[in-house]
Write a structure and sequence with these properties.
Blueprint (H helix, E strand, L loop, with lengths): L1 H20 L5 H13 L3 H13 L1 H29 L4 H4 L18 H16 L4 H17 L5 H22 L1
Helix pairs in contact: 2-7, 3-4, 4-6, 4-8, 6-7, 6-8, 7-8
Length: 176
């Protein structure tokens, strides 16, 4: 029973990946999704963190501390899972699938870009509630870009988002 559920999940994951990756490419969309993906690299998060520390007042320092604690929990879990599961990226498992952006590392599961995007969306929403919807839309688009660019499967993105949300929630509970 459990094996059948796992096999069905993986089949669904591959079918969804194939549906997304088989869409017609365009130079415009490639540029948009590469830009979205680069937002998840981390430089923007560092700038946000520094701005909060320097000009965010007490609330900003607490939000900055939450970011540090969340990434302090997220990164070791992410690295442990990624290096334990060792899921091949789509382009390695299916040679006919060409990625549209160079993957940052060898393994696919979970998506670190997505984890970081959802982590930051959740924490920033704590201080700037009026940005909640746009931040989570942006986080979702960053995750989707990773599938579109063919460097992740949908389940990598899904579990990356859960990892980011969980560690952000824990950090916010610790700090606030």
């Amino acid at each position: 029973m459990v094996k059948a559920i796992g096999e069905n999940f993986l089949r669904y994951d591959l079918n969804l990946f194939n549906l997304i990756s088989s869409r017609r490419e365009s130079r415009f969309l490639n540029t948009i999704y590469k830009g979205l993906s680069r937002l998840g690299n981390g430089e923007v998060y560092v700038v946000f963190f520094l701005l909060e520390l320097l000009s965010g007042g007490i609330e900003g320092r607490l939000v900055g501390l939450s970011v540090l604690i969340a990434f302090g929990m997220e990164l070791p879990v992410y690295l442990f899972v990624k290096n334990s599961v060792k899921r091949q990226r789509p382009c390695e498992r299916f040679p006919q699938v060409q990625f549209l952006m160079q993957p940052p590392d060898q393994y696919s599961f979970p998506s670190g870009h997505t984890a970081a995007a959802f982590l930051m969306a959740h924490i920033i929403s704590r201080q700037y509630a009026w940005l909640t919807v746009p931040l989570f839309i942006l986080a979702g688009l960053i995750g989707y870009s990773r599938i579109y660019l063919r460097v992740h499967y949908p389940s990598d993105v899904f579990f990356g988002s859960l990892l980011g949300l969980l560690t952000a929630s824990l950090a916010l509970m610790i700090v606030f």
